[in-house]
Specification:
heterodimer, A: alpha+beta, Arc Repressor Mutant, subunit A, Glutaredoxin, 2 domains, 45% helix, elongated, B: alpha/beta, Rossmann fold, Ubiquitin-like (UB roll), de novo design (two linked rop proteins), 4-stranded mixed beta sheet, 17 helices, 11% strand, globular
C-alpha cells in the first residue's frame, strides 16, 4: 500500500500532465524517495494510480538508470565512468572505492550503508573525475577526497 | 566583448532573484515581444538573427518554429519543450545557464512560447541537476507571482503554464522524439520522422523542442535585434557560443565566446593549453558523438560549417581532449561501452552493432585484437551510419570510432602487434 503522503505527492504530479501516465517517472521517483527503491508491490500500486498496467509501468521503471528495482543502501554512490572522467583517472578511483568498501558494482555494504554503482556522465566534466553520493556532487576526486567524503556519512 | 548569455552569472554565488534580474534589464524582452510584436514578428527576427540550434544538430531555430501549424484551426494545447537533458558525455554547458541565471531561462521560454503560441511549456531536466531544479522552481514561482506566467500574461490575453520535468537518467531522453515519449510516461524510444513534432508531437499535439542555450539567445535577439546578434559572431552563424573543455588541460572550464572562435584560441588561451607532462593528440569538439579533430585542425573556426568541412561537427561545443598518456583505443572503448549501454534497443543495427563494436575494442585492450578486426570495425561504422537506424544515436556513436580508426590507426595496429595495450603498465 502506498502511504497517504506518497499518494498525495503523486496526485499533485498528475495535475500538470495531459494524461496520467505522463507522471510515471516522477511517481516512481516519489516512491523511491520514501522507500529507497521500488518494490513489485509499490510498482503495482503506483501503476493503479496512473491508470497503467504494472507491466507498462515496469517497462518505464526498468528503462531508467536511476530507478532502483532492487533494495539499495542508505546512501547510493554513483561514480561517473564516462569519457572525461575516464581520462582523468576513473579506473584507479573505481579500484579504490571497491577496495575501501569491500564491494563490487551493484552491491551494498554489509552494514547497509552504501550501494556502489557506475553512472554515465554527471555533467561535471570540468571537475572530473566526479561522483555523486545521493544528491551531493563531488569533483576533482582523489583517493583521499573519496575517503573524506565517505567519512562524512556518519550513519 | 559582449557576453549576453552569461552577463548575470557570478560563479559560486546565488543567481539573481526576480528583482535583481529585472534591475539587470530582465523581462524587458518579454514586455517588448508581448506588447509590441506579433508572434510572427518574433519568429522573423529570430530567423534573421541566424540562430542555429545549440543542442548539437545546428538546425535554424526560426525555421523550426515556422513549421508549427497556423493558430487558426490548430489543435490545443500546443507545447514548447526545453531540452535540458544534457546527457551527452563531456557536456556541461546548459548547467551553467540553468543554475547561474534561471530567470533568463524562464524569460526565454515565455518569449519563445509566445512566438509559437504554445499553451504549455516543459523544461526537461537532466536527472543530476538537482540544484538547477530547485532554482528553476523558485524562478517559476516568482515569475508567476509577478504576472509573467500563467493566465493572461501582463494583460496581453496570452497565457502560458511552465513545468519542470526532472528525468531519471537515460541518454535517449535527449533525442527529440525520445524526449516526447519520455514526457508521455513511455520508454524514450525514438519515433519515426515524419511526422515531425511540430505537427504530431507531445500527446500527438503541435510541439517544438529546443535546447537550453538556443532559447537563452532569444530574449537578447528580441531586445537588441537580429543584426546585433549576427555581429556577435565571427562567421556566418549568429551569436555567441558556450565552449567548454575537459581533459588534461591546465584550466578545464566553460567560456562564452563569439561563434566561430578558432579551436586553437579555445584550447590554448582559455583552457591554458596542456598540463605539464602531457601532449595534445586530438579532441572531440562537441561531445562524444563527434569525430576527432587533430593538431592539423587547430586553426578551424568553431562555427557550424567549418568543423563539418573537416569531417567533424560543432556538436555541443564542449570538447574532450585526448592526451598522449591516454590510450586512444581505450578512450574509444569507453565511448562505445557508453553507447551500447544507452542504446534503447529499438532498432537492430544499434542494439546489436554497438555491443559488438565495444567487444572488439575490449579485445584490443586485452591484447586479443586480430588484424581482421579493424575491417570489421570499419564495416560496423558503415552499418551503424546515417540512414540505417531510427535515430542519431548509432550514427553519432560511430563518429569518434571512424575518425579514431583514421587518425590513430597505428595505435590500433600496435595493440595487435604487441598483443597488449601499450599504455598499460
Amino acid at each position: 500500500m502506498l502511504s497517504d503522503i506518497e499518494k498525495r505527492e503523486i496526485e499533485q504530479e498528475l495535475a500538470h500532465n495531459h494524461q496520467k501516465r505522463g507522471a510515471a517517472p516522477e511517481a516512481l521517483k516519489i516512491v523511491q524517495r520514501h522507500r529507497g527503491w521500488v518494490s513489485d508491490e509499490a510498482l503495482r500500486d503506483t501503476a493503479e494510480l496512473l491508470e497503467m498496467s504494472p507491466a507498462e509501468l515496469d517497462e518505464v521503471a526498468t528503462f531508467y538508470n536511476l530507478i532502483f528495482r532492487k533494495p539499495v543502501g542508505r546512501h547510493v554512490i554513483l561514480i561517473c565512468n564516462s569519457v572525461s572522467c575516464h581520462i582523468m583517472g576513473y579506473p584507479g578511483l573505481r579500484e579504490h572505492l571497491r577496495a575501501r568498501l569491500g564491494i563490487d558494482f551493484g552491491q551494498t555494504t554489509a552494514d547497509g550503508k552504501f550501494t556502489l554503482l557506475p553512472m554515465v556522465c554527471l555533467g561535471a566534466c570540468d571537475r572530473a573525475p566526479a561522483m555523486m553520493i545521493d544528491e551531493q556532487l563531488y569533483g576533482e576526486l582523489t583517493p583521499e577526497k573519496i575517503d573524506e567524503a565517505l567519512a562524512s556519512y556518519a550513519k | 566583448m559582449e557576453k549576453p548569455l552569461t552577463k548575470n552569472i557570478r560563479r559560486g554565488e546565488e543567481p539573481l532573484d526576480l528583482r535583481g534580474y529585472e534591475r539587470a534589464g530582465g523581462y524587458q524582452a518579454l514586455r517588448k515581444a508581448i506588447k509590441e510584436m506579433t508572434p510572427q514578428a518574433v519568429q522573423e527576427t529570430v530567423k534573421a538573427a541566424k540562430l542555429r540550434g545549440r543542442g548539437g544538430a545546428g538546425f535554424p531555430t526560426g525555421v523550426k518554429w515556422s513549421a508549427m501549424p497556423p493558430l487558426e484551426g490548430s489543435r490545443h494545447p500546443r507545447f514548447l519543450t526545453v531540452n535540458a537533458d544534457e546527457m551527452e558525455p563531456g557536456t556541461f554547458k546548459d548547467r551553467l545557464l540553468l543554475e547561474g541565471d534561471p530567470h533568463q531561462m524562464v524569460e526565454a521560454v515565455i518569449v519563445s512560447a509566445y512566438a509559437i503560441q504554445a499553451d504549455v511549456a516543459y523544461i526537461f531536466l537532466r536527472w543530476a541537476y538537482h540544484l538547477a531544479a530547485r532554482r528553476l522552481q523558485a524562478a517559476i514561482r516568482e515569475a508567476h507571482a509577478a504576472g509573467y506566467l500563467g493566465w493572461n500574461i501582463l494583460g496581453s490575453g496570452y497565457s502560458l503554464e511552465l513545468h519542470v520535468h526532472s528525468s531519471a537518467g537515460r541518454y535517449m531522453c535527449g533525442e527529440e522524439t525520445g524526449l516526447l515519449n519520455a514526457l508521455e510516461g513511455k520508454r524514450a524510444n525514438p519515433r519515426t520522422k515524419p511526422p515531425y513534432p511540430q505537427m504530431v508531437g507531445l500527446w500527438g499535439l503541435p510541439t517544438v523542442v529546443n535546447n537550453v542555450e538556443t532559447l537563452c539567445c532569444v530574449p537578447h535577439i528580441v531586445n537588441h535585434g537580429a543584426e546585433w546578434f549576427r555581429k556577435l559572431s565571427l562567421t556566418a552563424d549568429g551569436g555567441t557560443k558556450l565552449y567548454g573543455v575537459s581533459g588534461r588541460v591546465k584550466r578545464p572550464g566553460l567560456w562564452e565566446l563569439p561563434m566561430g572562435t578558432p579551436l586553437r584560441e579555445i584550447l590554448e588561451e582559455h583552457a591554458g593549453g596542456m598540463r605539464e607532462g602531457y601532449r595534445f593528440r586530438g579532441v572531440l569538439p562537441g561531445g562524444v558523438s563527434t569525430d576527432f579533430l587533430t593538431a592539423d585542425h587547430l586553426d578551424l573556426p568553431m562555427d557550424f560549417d567549418a568543423p563539418q568541412k573537416a569531417g567533424s561537427r560543432l556538436g555541443t561545443g564542449t570538447m574532450i581532449v585526448l592526451d598522449d598518456r591516454t590510450c586512444p583505443v581505450g578512450m574509444v572503448q569507453n565511448l562505445e561501452e557508453f553507447f551500447a549501454q544507452e542504446s534503447c534497443g529499438w532498432c537492430t543495427p544499434c542494439r546489436d552493432g554497438l555491443p559488438w563494436a565495444a567487444r572488439l575494442l575490449r579485445a584490443f585492450e586485452e591484447g586479443q585484437g586480430a588484424p581482421g578486426d579493424l575491417e570489421i570495425l570499419e564495416q560496423l561504422c558503415w552499418r551503424l551510419g546515417p540512414g540505417h537506424t531510427f535515430c542519431a544515436l548509432a550514427p553519432g556513436a560511430v563518429e569518434p570510432l571512424q575518425s579514431a580508426l583514421k587518425y590513430y590507426r597505428a595505435d590500433f595496429e600496435r595493440h595487435i602487434a604487441e598483443r597488449r595495450c601499450p599504455w598499460r603498465a
